[in-house]
Design a protein that fits this description.
Layout (H helix, E strand, L loop, with lengths): L1 E5 L7 E7 L4 E7 L3 H9 L6 E5 H6 L1 H10 L3 E5 L8 H14 L7 E5 L1 H13 L6 E5 L2 H7 L4 E6 L2 E8 L4 E5 L8 H18 L1 H9 L12 H18 L14 H7 L9 H19 L4 H17 L13 H9 L4 E2 L2 E9 L2 E8 H15 L1
Helix pairs in contact: 1-3, 4-5, 6-7, 6-9, 7-8, 7-9, 7-11, 10-11, 11-12, 11-14, 13-14
Length: 377
């Protein structure tokens, strides 16, 4: 990874990062007021240009999109908002639009939106003529600290999340923090969940800083926002450069996700991704205690910290959890991509700043989930 800093107007400093993968170099710009940068990046490509977004983002960022389209010629395709848009139907609609435009192998696809738009747009870009340039402009905190780096693309299929996908890193990622000014509070909470997960993997002091400031972090003008996003990006770039296709340590980024992906599919609870990750992290702590991955004292400290965070985020009691049939939840977890021979490969924290992938027997997991349900039902 390489890094450079560009000094602009006061308070508008931008940072440029590079992630070097086997097949390409992904360049990333982080700062504020970057619409001109984005237009310059998109305009550098020849051929028809497709801007992919979704309806809620288009309404919230209307002025930014209009300014962008005045600066550079693009065709625009709008998707349905939410996870419902992350489907094979939407994927075929994007491919049909690329065909109608006569998109070439060198034509760019700009995915302007949150993680759903980036995942779907990235998959379409990886498939069109066996790969076209992808540009990401993430507009949610969740997408900025997680989904925009590492090249994972996917759609949901058969009631399961992210089971059809590829690895296709973006050639450019433009992270404009000004896009967060219109972000709804719930999406802030979701992004914070992924940010805290990254800190739990990266450094105990960083994690404790986020836990202590959770009440102030949910706003676009937070003075430490740039620093936290940059740190999360650097952490993920470092891991994905070493393990691009998740053959080893990249799996650690799934902390909290094993249960989270199941919760996101359940009708009893209505959770954004990062909210589900926070609950999944709590479950991982309880499993870590059951397996002996961490001692009772450390597990107790991590549990208490997470419960305080959930309290601050108005998530201390989750409606619908009491109605969750744990047998069905366990069966869904047993279908996870990481299950081998009746054991679930699960990321468990041994302390803030360190985690391991541990083989967990399903009966032990059931005991931990009983305790998890008691704490959040």
């Amino acid at each position: 990874m390489s890094k450079s800093v560009n000094s602009g107007e006061p308070g508008c400093q931008s940072v440029e990062l590079e992630a070097r993968y086997a097949g390409c170099t992904s360049r990333l710009v982080l700062g504020r007021g970057l619409n001109e940068n984005l237009a310059r990046v998109v305009g550098a490509y020849t051929g028809p240009r497709l801007l992919l977004s979704e309806s809620q983002v288009a309404r919230a960022r209307q002025e930014q999109l209009e300014d962008l389209m005045e600066r550079v010629e693009v065709d625009r395709l709008m998707l349905r908002a939410g996870e419902e848009g992350k489907s094979s139907v939407s994927l075929l609609a994007v491919l049909a639009e690329l065909h109608a435009l006569g998109a070439e192998r060198g034509s760019p696809l700009l995915a302007f939106g949150g993680g759903m738009v980036g995942d779907l747009g990235g998959l379409a870009a990886s498939l069109w003529k066996r790969g076209m340039p992808l540009i990401l402009a993430p507009t949610s905190l969740l997408a900025m600290v997680d989904a925009c780096v590492g090249g994972k693309t996917a759609i949901n299929f058969g009631g399961e999340r992210n089971v059809v996908g590829t690895f296709w890193p973006a050639q450019w990622v433009v992270v404009d923090l000004d896009a967060l000014a219109t972000l709804p509070r719930r999406q802030w909470v979701s992004g914070f969940g992924e940010l805290l997960k990254t800190a739990w993997l990266g450094d105990a002091t960083w994690a404790e800083e986020l836990e202590a400031s959770v009440g102030d972090m949910l706003r676009a003008d937070h003075p430490r926002l740039h620093a936290h996003v940059e740190r999360a990006l650097c952490f993920k770039i470092a891991i994905t450069e070493r393990d691009e296709h998740e053959a080893g340590e990249r799996a650690l980024l799934n902390l909290g996700h094993t249960l989270a992906h199941v919760l996101e599919t359940r009708e009893e609870v209505e959770l954004a991704h990062g909210e589900a990750v926070l609950l999944g992290m709590l479950a991982a702590v309880l499993v870590a205690r059951e397996t002996g991955t961490c001692g009772p004292g450390e597990a107790g400290a991590m549990e208490a910290a997470l419960l305080r965070v959930l309290q601050h985020l108005d998530m201390a009691r989750i409606p619908g959890v009491a109605d969750l049939p744990l047998d069905e939840v366990l069966n869904a977890m047993a279908r996870d991509k990481k299950v081998r021979r009746g054991r679930l490969h699960m990321v468990l924290p041994c302390r803030r700043g360190a985690a391991h992938v541990v083989d967990v027997e399903l009966p032990l997991l059931r005991r931990a989930l009983d305790g998890w349900k008691e704490r959040v039902a």
